[in-house]
Amino acid sequence: MEVRRQIEVSGIVQGVGFRPYVYRLATGRHLRGTIRNTSAGVTIEIQGPAETVQDFVEHLPADAPTLARITSVTVHDVPCNGDQDFCIVHSLEGEEVRALISPDVAVCPDCLREMFDAHDRRYRYPFINCTNCGPRFTIIRDIPYDRPSTSMANFSMCAACLTEYENPLDRRFHAQPNACWECGPRVELWDKSGRRIDCRDPIAEAVSGLRAGLVVAVKGLGGFHLAVDATNAAAVALLRQRKHRVEKPFAVMVTDLQAAEEICELDDAARTILQSIQRPIVLLRKALLPKKKASIIPDEVAPCNRYLGIFLPYTPLHYLLLAEGGFNALVMTSGNLSEEPIAIDNREAVHRLHGLADYFLVHNRDILLRCDDSVVRVAGGVTRQMRRSRGFVPVPVFLKDDQPSVLAVGGELKNTICLTKGKHAFLSQHVGDLENVESYGFFCEAVEHLERILEIRPEIVAYDLHPDYFSTKWALQQSGAKRVGVQHHHAHIASCMAENHLEGRVIGFALDGTGYGTDGNIWGGEVLIAGYGEFERAAHFEYVTLPGGAAAIREPWRMAVSYLAHHFGREFMKLDIPFVRQLHRPNVDLLLRMMEQSVNSPLTSSCGRLFDAVAALIGIRQQVNYEAQAAIELEMVMASSEEETTYQMKLVPDGDHWIISTQPLFEGLLDDLGQNVPVAAISRRFHNGLVEGFVELATLLRKLAALNRVCLSGGTFHNIYLSQRLEARLSEAGFEVFTQKEVPSGDGGLSLGQALVAAAKVMRYKINS
């Protein structure tokens, strides 16, 4: 019996070779019909014998291309017609956009083989791609994802490329960035003033510059990198000086896994994510080398850090630079001045990177949206996001239940935005810290672009309660949508709940550096009883002063003084420990008067500032050059051997919640300092003390609130030792523990939680009104 069925497929099915896959699936079974891209995904009509059509339907999702991600398949019968073959037809426009866009992905092995084949017409072509690889998100203007809607619209395909593009059996069928030497984008080398350098081979000239220790700005998929030879300590130091990046680690691009294994420790999970199509930067422990053998990567790349950020090449141009230069590794850091967004336009790069780069290796394929590299950390065989950007965006977080359309605008640091629609939450790429006009402009670009390509007009705008955040000010200026403020740490816990598809209430540990509290103080060491719609503050670290406000974040010694004065008064100045002996007495007297008179000394319960105080007190870091540096280095110095001793914390009842007192912790720490206990052991005892105190608190709250689920979120949980040990100890105590893997636990995942909280509040209001 002859049947015809219409099949609607939603998900990431455009620009990933899905239509030629369906074409081969249909023609191989001698079926007839059509397939076309739509704004929802693809629509297939398939006609033939009932058994054969059913076989087609069953194999459709099972054998889909690697880059495809099918979220739904609906099938229904339609009348048969006179189709004689199977055809791919033009896309339909004007429908509501529901298709998911593929992220940019690394160049595939097939294209690499062609690029390094001297007999191939694309030999050494730095923009080689096919339906299985290459740019997507950063070159798209609109849906459907067809060439006229991308930055490749400026390039008319030559006859050979057009033949590939139109052949359903070819690997480049409807590969929108398809091009070659004859018809596609080209690279040029510019000098530091932006003048084109007349040379036969721009890539070879750039390689010569890198070998000579120069800084080369390289245009990639989502923006520019600043590149130097990672094995050249002088070149690394030069880049640090020019970029004003004193100590923050640089990312290192290595040729292959073998090169990575020579400088870092790799397990199977690390090997897998390094080679994945997303090609994120992976934080890996530096390899232990024999005493007389030095690493090829100088300490200047990641000073005072046991880890390196390693990634493999992901564009054809990267492969050409590494291979033709014979480099084992290149520093590839974002093409920007510190804390500014990455540069994407050629002339913009010359203007903004003037004085940083000696050469500019540019090309004429426009980047329509900047997208920085993603950063992940692997621990215990699990990959956790630290910066979710290129390779992962705009793949949505899939939610348990349908949501209204919400735009959540994130926080001030590590900003991302989030748009929700149905069961999809679309987080933007990493926007960064909204501390300057350039970053704020990028934030506005990200909102506009994501709303446009998803065709989402939000009903609700969610924002952080902090009145001075750029994102909050922007949200409060919007009209036409309901505006909902969301407490920072509530959003953290909701983000963890959303990723793990949790409903109801949980015990939430929200630990970070800064978040505006409902009492006007600076929170950061919070234990909440929370659902999406509301939360209770069950416990928090005791308040101490933040002497000098933001200055105390840049100068951890201030926090050490604050904690010592809080617990021991001015008597702490009589302590015979190195920290006190090295203090400049006039500065300390001024600081103490500020705190006593409450001058520029807000109150904080921040866990991050507690880490700062301990790091300063034991001599690790008195001033920082980048965010969380003191806490990171406190983790780095930790003893690797098991340490049974732990510092204590005390739970003090205060009305309907608990105060976590750190006085016993500091008493134990000072005793150890007086006995010259190594800082490695002190660090471990501090970390273990936090863990045991949190387990005690969770056990108490389980009895009081009858809850057994615990969510861990906030930037402090980027500390792998703390995160893993707390998760393990809570599990041993019988708790169900939920952490974050798909989105960052830090502020990069904040917007997801904001969206879910705002939606729940509005829905509750509608129900109650």
Describe the structure.
A ten-stranded mixed beta sheet has the order 6-13-7-8-12-9-11-10-14-15, sandwiched between helices. A seven-stranded mixed beta sheet has the order 25-26-22-21-20-27-28, sandwiched between helices. It is an alpha/beta fold and 769 residues long. It is built from 23 helices and 28 strands. The protein starts with a strand and ends with a helix. The radius of gyration is 28 Å and the shape is globular.
Enumerate the spans where pLDDT stays under 50 for 5 or more consecutive residues. Answer: none
Main sheet characteristics? 10 strands, mixed
Bin the helical content.
25-40%
Over the alpha carbons, how many angstroms does the gyration radius reach?
A: 28 Å
Question: How many strand segments?
Answer: 28
Shape call: globular
| Strand adjacency order, main sheet | 6-13-7-8-12-9-11-10-14-15
**Helical stretch count?**
23
Which structural class fits the helix and strand makeup? alpha/beta
Task: Report the average pLDDT across residues.
Answer: 93
In short:
By secondary structure, the protein is α/β, with parallel strands linked by helices. α5 crosses α9, α15 (556-568) packs across α17 and α18 packs across α19.
